[in-house]
What we know:
241 residues, mainly alpha, Glycerol uptake facilitator protein
Amino acid sequence: MSTFTAEMLGTALLVILGNGAVANVVLGRTKGNNSGWIVITTGWAMAVTVGVYAVNSVSGAHLNPAVTLGLASIGKFAWSAVPAYLAAQMLGAFLGAVVVWLAYLPHWRETADQSGKLAVFSTGPAIRSPISNLLCEIIGTAVLVGGVLAILRPENLVPNSGFDKGFAPLLVGLLVWSIGISLGGQTGYAINPARDLGPRIAHAILPIAGKGSSDWGYAWIPVVGPIIGGVLGAVLFGFCW
Length: 241
């Protein structure tokens, strides 16, 4: 499997399981309807864990442009490989969103709330305040990228233990769970430009009954914020460690 295919499939799996959890909570007449924020954050944590386990040995399982750009900014990833990784992540996120749409096909007509339908695909603010929303995404993604680098720093790696491939993905998932519970309440914690933009494009294209707006006026925040935060988190990690 090529690194492009790995990043595409890993990101698709991430979105299928993460956005699928959101769909189960917000769409009408599902078994998990109204089961709440803890279900969503747990679903996303497990989605990240599974996605990383699936392709870590092939591509390093970035699954997130903020991670790719953050690593490249501190010399831990080749800039020449960045465009292919970003393209794979965007394509994977789009395809993953299409799969979620198909999986819940009967439930779109059972959901009156247009914002709920959009929430299955992309994030949105609890209180619309662009500067505050942007800052929250920057902070959340800085914690993500800095936290991942901290988990994988050499002091934590026992020689020949396989820690980085065997146990570290679970810790990354726990980190995402923690971010969702602690910092996700304002914006829905995109912390991943592909995870938000790819599915938002899917929302705009797919024939979803009564779907409403794709909220393109907000769409730049979960793209720009995570990119700034990813680079900031990587730089701060390099400065501290």
